[in-house]
Amino acid sequence: MKSNSVASTKNFELRAPSNMSEEEILALIDDTPFAVLSTCDAEGIPYGVPVTTLRMGRSIYFHGSRARMSRKLVNLSLKPFASLCWVGENQIVEKNVNVRFASAVAAGPVCRIEENKEELDRFIRFMFDRRAPSLSNEERVAYVESNPTPAVWRLDIEQLTGRFNPGDI
To answer: What CATH code would you report for 22-164?
Structure first.
């Protein structure tokens, strides 16, 4: 098998263009709270981990462990670029052995935001409004006080694709 000398696939042309509009892709992201975060280490070893996401504009926020040696933290520290993949609708169509699905992928640079108090506060307010709107102000304050230094990252979208297969092909 011949070796490929390509150093990066970051700017590869897609084999087929997205068949979803940007508006449809962003709606899928907003409606699908879980994604798989993909990173790689210095040797190029991939690592994928499920995360809970929230989109604000052209940025995707996710959080995780504050452990100093988590693979996610180490990989993002070494190579602060990642991708997120959401699978919204998915259903096996038995009659033609196909899958009806909708998926989205966003990729871009990643940074931690907990040092930026203003951005972190904006994210926390947005998180409550989106994911826990019925919490009282007292419950919100109690949550923040019990989690004084959350590990929150922001991925700024540079690449965005979406695919939909009706499953009847």
So the answer is: 2.30.110.10
Give, in order, the Cα–Cα distances in Å from 34 to each of 30, 52, 95, 168: 10, 5, 29, 26
Q: CA–CA distance from 18 to each of 15, 32, 47, 85, 167 (Å)?
A: 10, 18, 25, 14, 16
- CA 166, CA 99: separation in Å to the nearest integer? 8
| Sequence-distant (≥ 6) Cβ neighbours of residue 14 within 8 angstroms | 161
In terms of Cα–Cα distance, which of 53, 64, 108 is closest to 86? 53
Q: What is the pTM of this model?
A: 0.84
Report residue 150 as tokens.
């959350």
Rounded to whole angstroms, the Cα distance separating 84 from 81 reads: 10
Domain ranges for the chain? 22-164
User: What are 102's two structure tokens?
Assistant: 């909708």
**Interval 37-83: pLDDT, tens:** 999 999 999 999 999 999 999 999 998 766 667 889 899 989 999 99
